[in-house]
Specification:
It contains 18 helices and no strands. The protein has helices at about 15-35, 45-60, 80-85, 90-105, 105-125, 135-140, 140-150, 150-165, 170-180, 185-200, 205-220, 225-230, 250-265, 270-275, 275-285, 295-300, 300-310, 315-335. The N and C termini lie far apart (about 50 Å). The relative contact order is 0.13.
Length: about 350
């Protein structure tokens, strides 16, 4: 497919750049995992703390009654149908439970998973983007939050990213399927990916663009306005008005809307090669006004989005880097405790 020759072309293993990228990726992942982010992050890593409490309780008591993480009934991890295995994301539970048994501490188990996520992100990006700009994306605070707290989302989508680094379509599909049982949102990625692969055959620029935008907007509306119908059909806990509480960041949405605009103003070849990322950004921007955690869509997929952004023409790429650099600086003002400017203690 033409898209695979752009942002997600498979890695050519065995080259010197690949060896350098692997070593740098290991160093980056270790640094982020070991760095004391709790001294910097204003909000902390709430999901991580809840996961630790839950899995340590389960490991010590062998009791599922503590459901503070998922806020569901005790039978969440007692599925009986394939749909329940999917909607309850059982593979995630089994993986963390197994690692907790091996290490004796859920915190260690979860940090092993964070290391894997970060390693995959760095390896993907270092093989495709100039080393000079890679840190801008790898140290995005909300990407770090996803890898260190929204770990389930990060792990599932990192499996998809691994799929983009291999040649085999069958293995790529298998990784998509595996990711769905870690975090069910991977199903949306699969729909966007395979639909945009079909759309990429269109010859007209407008057809390509509207196809990518249309499927992203459609999936965003299905998970928000149509959540009772779409998610209710599979018994997903994310259905209902209680989940659609608003609060998505206007600042974040503005930056990614600017990138989407630059992509839409690009030529047919660029749109064809990067139509999947266009669809993902359209999905995020549709979700943002409804769901506060929607930033994890770009946070968990930032390496792929960054690679597509760096494929822009020279002037558009420079403009995006300037906008993105300022945006990251503002993010750190909001996200960290280092600058009590907007929210003084």
């Amino acid at each position: 497919m033409p898209f695979e020759r752009a942002a997600v072309n498979p890695v050519q293993w065995g080259s010197r750049r690949t060896l350098d990228a692997v070593l740098l990726s290991i160093g980056y992942a270790l640094f982020v995992v070991l760095f004391p982010w709790e001294e910097i992050s204003r909000a902390g890593f709430t999901d991580f703390d809840q996961y630790v409490d839950y899995f340590n309780y389960f490991f010590q008591k062998n009791d599922l009654s503590f459901s503070g993480v998922y806020q569901l009934s005790v039978d969440i991890f007692q599925p009986s149908t394939l749909i329940q295995y999917f909607s309850r994301e059982v593979l995630w539970f089994e993986l963390v439970r197994g690692l907790t048994r091996m290490t004796g501490d859920a915190a260690v188990a979860l940090r092993i998973i964070s290391f894997v996520i970060l390693f995959v992100w760095a390896l993907f990006l270092l093989k495709r983007v100039s080393y000079a700009v890679v840190p801008l994306f790898l140290f995005n605070p909300f990407a770090i939050d996803t890898a260190m707290s929204g770990i389930r989302n990060g792990l599932a989508w990192s499996l998809v990213i691994v799929g983009f680094m291999i040649q085999s379509n069958a293995l790529r599909m298998a990784l998509f399927m595996t990711g769905m049982f870690v975090h069910s949102s991977t199903l949306v990625l699969a729909v966007l990916y395979y639909f945009t692969q079909l759309v990429s055959r269109f010859k007209e620029r407008e057809g390509l663009l509207f196809g990518g935008l249309g499927i992203g907007i459609f999936m965003g509306l299905s998970l928000t306005v149509g959540s009772e119908l779409f998610l209710g059909a599979i018994g997903d806990r994310r259905q209902g008005q209680a989940y659609l509480v608003g609060g998505g960041s206007f600042l974040q949405a503005s930056l990614w809307a600017a990138l989407l605009g630059l992509q839409c103003m690009s030529g047919r070849t660029y749109i064809r090669q990067n139509i999947f990322v266009i669809a993902v950004l359209a999905w995020y921007l549709t979700m943002n006004p409804f769901v506060p955690w929607s930033y994890r869509i770009y946070g968990a997929f930032l390496p792929v989005i960054a690679a597509a952004a760096m494929n822009l023409s020279h002037r558009k790429r420079q403009l995006f880097i300037y906008l993105y650099s300022g945006y990251v600086a503002l993010q750190y003002l909001y996200w960290s405790k280092l600058f009590d400017y907007w929210y003084p203690a």
